[in-house]
């Protein structure tokens, strides 16, 4: 025995060559052990459900879930002025989809404050009014676009038809999230589920800034091919709806429509004069500016909206 090494206080049991040791456990005891381990382990999370509401917000982390929205912040579709053509096209596309017919993904692009996101929410409400409970609206945040394939896998198993909506969608330089959106809109081996449409709003027609496109053209070996690869993302939307700055008569029509809907009693000349002054102080005219003016006016008149 080497110097300084203590002699072990135990010795292994001798086992003959070819023999095996077996540990016998009573079946009842084994079942009790399994039951105890199951009680200690947390139950698996329930899969996200589209029951109980017509609108949801997608939260991919820490546990994927669809948070219901009891009351959607929206305006009636009849109050949206100056966008009659866009309104008719989007409403028809949404109604077809809610009735189980083929429809297109939609890109709403253009001037700020002209009712792009308001029109999406209003069309969803109008479709559910025509076909009650037929359509769910799920909002996905821009920073969660990379989780869109995961969301579609959740929705693929649902019998309910769904609009996935991303507001103010755009991509910056070195941003590769557009590839996830591109693959689920029109590509991939699984393809987009038949019960899902994607609606997006953006201030940019091609979802990317001009300097991002120009940078691709300047740095790539085949510049035009790199640009086409990025610009082709917007081609995956079957419908493009453009929104442009409104003129003064359209702005006045918006103001008068909101005032009438809210029952604001103010002479027409005074109403339009104040609306014009408000637009000058805001540096432009739009549906958002008209609604902000009406909110201010209602507050000054002491009337709830």
CATH class of the largest domain: Alpha Beta
Report the β-strand fraction as a percent range.
5-15%
What is the topology, as strand order, of the major beta sheet? 2-1-4-5-6-3-7
Derived from helix and strand composition plus strand pairing, the structural class reads alpha/beta
How far apart are the termini? 94 Å
What is the H-and-E element order?
A: HEEHEHEHEHEHHEHHH
- Most strands sheet: 7 strands, mixed
Averaged pLDDT, please?
82
Give helix % range. 40-55%
What is the CATH homology-level superfamily of the largest domain? P-loop containing nucleotide triphosphate hydrolases
> Low-confidence segments, ≥5 residues, pLDDT <50?
none
DSSP summary: helix tally: 10
Global shape: elongated
Throw out a few tags for this protein.
Rossmann fold, 305 residues, 12% strand, 10 helices, alpha/beta
Verbal overview:
- The protein is an alpha/beta fold.
- It folds into two domains: 55-243, P-loop containing nucleotide triphosphate hydrolases (Rossmann fold), CATH 3.40.50; 248-300.
- It is 42% helix and 12% strand.
- The chain has helices at residues 27-40, 84-98, 116-130, 148-156, 178-186, 210-219, 223-235, 248-262, 268-282, 287-300; strands at residues 55-59, 65-68, 106-110, 135-139, 161-166, 196-202, 239-243.
- The protein has a seven-stranded mixed beta sheet.
- The radius of gyration is 30 Å and the shape is elongated.
- The model has no long low-confidence stretch (mean pLDDT 82).
